[in-house]
Amino acid sequence: MSNSEGAGLKLTEVLTELENFAPKQLSESWDNTGLLLQPYTQRQINKILLTNDLTENVALEAKKCGCEMIISYHPPIFAPLKSIVQSSWKERIVSFLLENRISLYSPHTSWDSVQGGVNDWLASAFPFSEATPIIPGVDPNTGAGRFLKLKTGISLDDAVTSVKQITGLKHVRLALGSEKSINDIIQTVALCAGSGGSVLKNVANGDLFLTGEMLHHDVLDAAQRGISVILTNHSDSERGFLRGFSSILQDKLNNRIQVLVSECDKDPLITV
């Protein structure tokens, strides 16, 4: 029996720890989360590759690195697949992973909702005294988005700098609230990783909105209400969470496996 088949952990053991961190029931009802691909002939899990988006290049990277499992934050299987052939990139990925016996798990909105998940990682850019879900979930500490009350006010300029630091971005997009300036002090921040427009609409008052992307008219509405808006690009508001979570997951699995973060994964949009 090869090392890949005899060492490491069973897939069920990995799934148990993932569910302990963020139970599937925290996911939004419309989402497609959990175990998405399970090869017929399974392997022990020795290496896991974390990625924000699963592209063909990331799938090839997983094979090259010897990974038996991929955790893709965004579910690559969302709309129903009527066939698994070679005509589309998503079908090719499914075919490739099954052929190479690589399991696929996607947490998406369960990681957004859970305490210590993606939104709380994004919130750590700010010195806050209180953080509450904008749309509460199954308990007061879980749910969509976060509303932050800061310990002390910071300038909008400092807030922009903090967002750039936590996301690793050189540039973000900024809409100034009506009659506001870059030097104005903010006391509250409402944030939602990814596409946060529908969540942030539930915030009546705030000094700053932070998300990956919003519709033009939602940005315009916020700005006219005096709320400044920072946009990072969708996945750039999420991807940085994986760096810290790789160590957390490896510890949860008692260091019996290696958890890698994809080097190929990146937002498809760049500022030029």
From TrEMBL:
Keyword Metal-binding: yes
Pfam name, any one: DUF34_NIF3
Gene Ontology CC terms: mitochondrion
Residues given in the record as a divalent metal cation binding sites: H74, D112, H234, E238
Keyword Metal-binding: yes
One GO MF term attached to the UniProt entry: metal ion binding
InterPro entries recorded: DUF34/NIF3
Keyword list, A-Z: Metal-binding
Listed PANTHER family: NGG1 INTERACTING FACTOR 3 (PTHR13799), NIF3-LIKE PROTEIN 1 (PTHR13799:SF13)
Similarity annotation: Belongs to the GTP cyclohydrolase I type 2/NIF3 family.
Name of the featured protein: NIF3-like protein 1
